[in-house]
């Protein structure tokens, strides 16, 4: 008897992931063959797992706590002290505008903030503050792509994929260094 193989399933990319706790909740760290593909913050594993599968709908998500133990520890250290940097390869996926916004965000020094409009004006391609906000919302690499450093034109905090309270704490933590 011949077994049939679903080619789509066999060809699906594998995204391995693991969890850890840190001072602002739970973190899910996911890796592809290229590097860290997602750093998601939240309050519980089920919601973070759903967020991961939503971000990578064509991938096969596989729990790998042991295989990612070292990577997860490095991410937690980074989340606790972002000014030290993250010495891991990142698998950054996005369209052209998202990539440009995310690079601009990565250029913001720890402890500083910038407005959505300022980023839009500085990009090498035309964009609005709203488009910058949409790119921030699409980011799945928390703190590694520091969307938390972006504020409204009046300096106040606005939405953040992982909660405004986390955003405030991250900004305050970086300001103390």
Automatic annotation (TrEMBL):
Pfam families for the chain: DNA_binding_1
Keywords: DNA damage, DNA repair, Methyltransferase, Transferase
Gene3D superfamilies to which the protein is assigned, alphabetical: Methylated DNA-protein cysteine methyltransferase domain (3.30.160.70), Winged helix-like DNA-binding domain superfamily/Winged helix DNA-binding domain (1.10.10.10)
Domain Methylated-DNA-[protein]-cysteine S-methyltransferase DNA binding: 98-175
Catalytic activity line of the entry: a 4-O-methyl-thymidine in DNA + L-cysteinyl-[protein] = a thymidine in DNA + S-methyl-L-cysteinyl-[protein]; a 6-O-methyl-2'-deoxyguanosine in DNA + L-cysteinyl-[protein] = S-methyl-L-cysteinyl-[protein] + a 2'-deoxyguanosine in DNA
The protein, known as: Methylated-DNA-[protein]-cysteine S-methyltransferase DNA binding domain-containing protein
């Amino acid at each position: 008897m011949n077994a049939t193989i679903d080619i789509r399933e066999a060809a699906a990319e594998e995204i391995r992931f693991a969890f850890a706790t840190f001072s602002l909740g739970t973190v899910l760290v996911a890796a592809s063959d290229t590097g860290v593909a997602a750093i998601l913050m939240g309050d519980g594993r089920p919601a973070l797992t759903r967020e991961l599968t939503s971000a990578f709908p064509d991938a096969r998500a596989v729990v790998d706590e042991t295989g990612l133990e070292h990577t997860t520890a490095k991410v937690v250290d980074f989340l606790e002290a972002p000014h030290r940097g993250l010495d891991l390869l990142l698998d950054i996926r996005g369209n052209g505008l998202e990539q440009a916004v995310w690079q601009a965000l990565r250029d913001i020094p720890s402890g500083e903030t910038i407005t959505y409009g300022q980023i839009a004006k500085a990009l090498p391609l035309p964009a609005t503050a709203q488009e910058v906000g949409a790119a921030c919302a699409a980011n799945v690499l928390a703190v590694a792509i520091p969307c938390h450093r972006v504020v409204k034109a009046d300096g106040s905090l606005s939405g953040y994929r992982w909660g405004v309270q986390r955003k405030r704490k991250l900004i305050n933590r970086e300001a103390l260094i």
